[in-house]
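Morning run. Coffee first, then this:
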Amino acid sequence: MRQGPLVEDEEREVVSELVELEVKPTDMIGFMYNSLRKDLVEMMDKPMEIRQFQGLLVGNTPTQAMLEESRLVFHAFAAGNNMLREVMDLKIALLRRRKLNSQP
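And here it is:
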């Protein structure tokens, strides 16, 4: 059975390598991926500030409590992202070192 295009794309090492996929008109996940791909690359390359999401609250005025909670969530996410990035960087460095040591 042939793998789907998103599964085949999992082998990319960095977000900037993501490519547009040829998808069938009924493939909603593939369509969403293609629609968001460029934004994903930008979002993963640099962290965004909370104020960049203000347009999501159109028609509503955020309260101070909402802003504080979103700031807390943002910092928790950023901290988790940094921890994962450090782990991934270490794993990549180990894999590269093993690859170099196994070459004749």
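The helical segments are 5-8, 28-45, 64-102. Good start to the day.
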